[in-house]
């Protein structure tokens, strides 16, 4: 799918694409952080009808809803292309020594070579978590690495 990006001086950026139904959809990313979704009419492709507006926080929530199921799927697809690389999920159990502690305290990447690429918490996905992101009981870590690295992350979060 082709997404066209247009600079709107003083406003922000507009992204446009045609969906499968033949509608032209636009998303205006305003400098203020707000987003506006518009629909272009077939009769006049320069005339846009506003559909809805989202605050920065609402846009993040929508992106997580739309992207969460696809994130793990994309990592799984990636690992099929690279021999020896796998994707795994590691749950933070309530008895983990890392509950309510920052991810960086695990030193998982340094100790195992595996990367924690997302934290799934309830229906929310925190992609590319940083070392300061705090882990909670029942979080699920999405881990990319060798089989040994993934099992190492599991061992670390379970035992310390």
Automatic annotation (TrEMBL):
Entry-linked Pfam families: KhtT_N, TrkA_C
Protein name (database record): RCK C-terminal domain-containing protein
GO biological process, one term: potassium ion transport
Family annotation (InterPro entries): AAE_transporter, KhtT, KhtT-like_N, RCK_C, RCK_C_sf
PROSITE patterns: RCK_C
The organism's place on the tree of life at top rank: Bacteria
UniProt source species: Mycolicibacterium sarraceniae
SUPFAM superfamilies (alphabetical): TrkA C-terminal domain-like
Residues of the RCK C-terminal domain: 73-159
PANTHER family associated with the record: K(+)_H(+) ANTIPORTER SUBUNIT KHTT
GO molecular function, one term: monoatomic cation transmembrane transporter activity
